[in-house]
Structures are given as C-alpha cells and as structure tokens.
Amino acid sequence: MPIEKEALQAIWLTIKLATSTTVLLLLLATPLAWWLAWTRSRWRVPISALVTMPLVLPPSVLGFYLLVALGPDGPIGRLTQALGIGVLSFTFAGLLVGSIVYSLPFAVQPMQHAFEAMGRRPLEVAATLGASRMDAFFSVALPQARTGLLTAAILSFAHTVGEFGVVLMIGGNIPGQTRVVSTQIYGHVEAMEYASAHWLAGGMLLFSFVVLLALAGLRRNGSRVLP
C-alpha cells in the first residue's frame, strides 16, 4: 500500500526526535554517569534513584507532571514565558524535554557500568605519564567505555522511538508537529484503520529486532576485548 503523507510526517518527526534526544542525552549523561561511577558524595544514592525513576514510573504519571511543569502555570513554563520562548507543552521542544527525561536512565546506566568496569587503574597510569584529568578522560576513559557509550546511544534512540504515554501527555497528537509513529498507530487503531496500523506496527517490530541484534553484537564484541 502507498505510504500516506501523515505516516511519512510521523516517521520523519520520530527520527528527528530520537536523533535529537540521543545527541543531547549523550552530552548530558556522560558527565553524570562519570560522577555517579566515581563520587563518594552522600548525594550519589538519591541522585541515582532520581535518574532511575523513569524506569518504574508509569509513563502517564511522568508525562502528567512534565505537562504541569511545562505548562503556563508550571515552574518551567513560567521561566520559558519570561524568557520569551513561550509554553513548551504541545510543541516539539516539549517532546524533546520529555524524551530526555524519560530516556535518561537508558543513557546513564550503560555508561556508568562501563566506567565502573574500567576501574581506576588506567586513569592512574595516565596520571603517572603526565596526563591531566581532562586528557585522561578523553584519551583513556571514553575509548575504554566505548561499548557502554554505543549501548547508551542505541538504547536512547530506540527507547525514544518507542515511547507513547509521555509524548501523548506532553505533545498530544498534532499532525506534523507532535504526532510520532506511536501516536500515529494509536490514531489508526482508534479510527479502526487496521491496515495502516499494521504497516507502521510491523515497521516498529522490525526496528526492535534490529536494535536487539545490534545490542547482542555489542555485548559479544565488548566481551572479546575485556582482559
């Protein structure tokens, strides 16, 4: 069957959202994962719990509180309005904020585990050779944790592609603006357009299978390079 215009818009918006979320998450989650891996601060446990909360919270609950926070009377909404940005709810920017929060543990945890598995020894060796902390981080830590970084990128992208409850609560289902593949499928099912729903859902199934294959390959290759 021919691809509908609305379906193409939803696919493009989903790819755009997942790509933007993944890039921003890697930038935000890498220093956070590094801090969680090595800090002895008393704040480590509560911050780790806060980062992990999206794994156990129902997406509708997370989406509701994000909607309140981003809305005109919420703290973030008041700030964005004062800055002249406007309200972020029911916009692509709002979807991006929600996706970053919702997928944060999928980026932080693989990198944190990779940093912890690396141990302090490589950094100590780099320090004895005169490398600064920043040099050691970029030239030693990141290359050694590459499997964790790749896993974080794949999981963040895939999780964003598959999210439904959060994006529906924050962005609604506005064609061309906030309608992603998951909400497009929901709309087709509501309208009893099962053929169109099957086409998009089948694509999601194939995508999920490819992601799992990629993760399995990363784990296998990562285990080969471990000492």
From TrEMBL:
Keyword annotations: Cell inner membrane, Cell membrane, Membrane, Molybdenum, Transmembrane, Transmembrane helix, Transport
SUPFAM superfamilies for the chain: MetI-like
Entry coiled-coil feature ranges: none
Cell membrane in keyword set: yes
InterPro entries in UniProt: MetI-like, MetI-like_sf, ModB_ABC
PROSITE patterns for this protein: ABC_TM1
Residues covered by the ABC transmembrane type-1 domain: 11-217
Chief location: membrane
Transferase among keywords: no
Membrane-topology annotation of the record: Multi-pass membrane protein
Membrane-crossing segments per the record: 12-35, 47-70, 82-105, 149-170, 197-218
UniProt subcellular location: Cell inner membrane; Cell membrane
Role noted for this protein: Part of the binding-protein-dependent transport system for molybdenum; probably responsible for the translocation of the substrate across the membrane.
PANTHER family: MOLYBDENUM TRANSPORT SYSTEM PERMEASE, MOLYBDENUM TRANSPORT SYSTEM PERMEASE PROTEIN MODB
Family of the protein in this entry: Belongs to the binding-protein-dependent transport system permease family. CysTW subfamily.
Name of the molecule in the record: Molybdenum transport system permease
